[in-house]
Design goal:
By secondary structure, the chain is of the alpha/beta class. The chain contains 9 helices and 9 strands. Strand 2 and strand 3 form a beta hairpin.
Length: about 300
């Protein structure tokens, strides 16, 4: 984007950790903007999402990655590939741990991967607002054993506690460099991708346990209606007929609730423009196990 002031710092920062550790929540908290969907379900994030924070001292480009896990499907394999590819392209890593759940074998496996890197790694214990003192101390001790040379910080991605201090520490570890994005940019996600994710978030939150992992959303078309109105046409894909029935709900009630909730977030994302959201539900059997369908839906890229 051009020259930056002398001594200006900029770089790419990967947020990594096990599924459901709070990476997307932390990203949204840092940016004070919603650029990544959140859910209590693991494996909510399916792509490498870039969130951009520009300050007078630095521009930080955060890359929120899917949680590293043992893959069982083509989708899972591709998500793990996203994590590994991202680690080779960033200037620093924020390694997120769950202070309440504690440090487990999955964290230790990921720590082994990170020890092969030559870039700065910052260990972050998340959920310190909910952790008991004994839980927090146990997590801190195990984190030190995994990477004694890595500095450790505590934050609450939910409340924002400790987040500004963490950002300052990250800035100190970035190289001097240019502005990669315009100062007012907060994400590089295309509108269609972001709208699809906002819809999928509502499906995750509102449907039963057997549905979330099987859901994909594609925005088929966006039409501008006059100065203030936008029509969005989207398809929710599931893997089984029974799941389609759950998403639609009795008399279409669940689909209507999903649409109403998603529309509010979409209108906020689009700057307050009125949105007419048209949703349909289709079955694409076992799409998670079919590499071609995973690629078509844009996951793991």
């Amino acid at each position: 984007m051009g020259d930056a002031p002398e001594g200006y710092r900029s770089g790419f920062v990967s947020l990594v950790g096990r599924p459901n550790v709070g990476k997307s929540t932390l990203l949204n908290q840092i940016l004070k903007n919603k650029v990544a969907i959140t859910s209590e379900r693991p494996q909510t994030t399916r792509t490498a999402i870039r969130g951009i924070l520009t300050t007078p001292r630095a521009q930080l480009v955060f890359v929120d990655t899917p949680g590293l896990h043992k893959p069982r499907t083509a989708l899972g394999e591709r998500l793990n590939r996203v994590v590994h590819n991202t680690l080779g392209e960033v200037d620093a890593v924020v390694f997120l741990l769950d202070a309440v759940a504690g440090v487990g074998s999955g964290d230790e496996f990921l720590a082994g991967e990170l020890r092969t890197l030559t870039i700065p790694v910052l260990v972050v214990l998340n959920k310190i607002d909910a952790a008991k003192p004994a839980e927090l101390e146990s997590s801190r001790v195990r984190a030190l054993r995994m990477g004694a040379e890595w500095p450790t910080y505590g934050v609450s991605a939910r409340t924002g506690q400790g987040v500004s201090d963490l950002v300052s520490e990250i800035v100190e570890r970035l190289p001097t460099g240019p502005l990669y994005y315009p100062p007012d940019a907060v994400t590089d996600q295309a509108d269609q991708q972001m709208l699809a994710e906002l819809i999928r978030e509502k499906v995750l939150r509102l449907t039963r346990e057997e549905v979330p992992h099987s859901v994909a959303v594609v925005v088929d078309e966006i039409r501008t209606e006059g100065d203030d109105g936008i029509e969005v046409y989207a398809t929710i894909y599931v893997e089984r007929d029974s799941q389609k029935g759950i998403v639609i709900g009795k008399g279409g009630r669940m689909l209507k609730e999903i649409g109403t909730s998603a529309r509010r977030d979409i209108e906020t994302f689009l700057g307050g423009k009125h949105v007419y959201l048209h949703l349909r539900v289709k079955v694409e059997h076992d799409w998670q196990r079919r590499a071609a369908m995973v690629e078509r839906f844009g996951y793991g890229t």
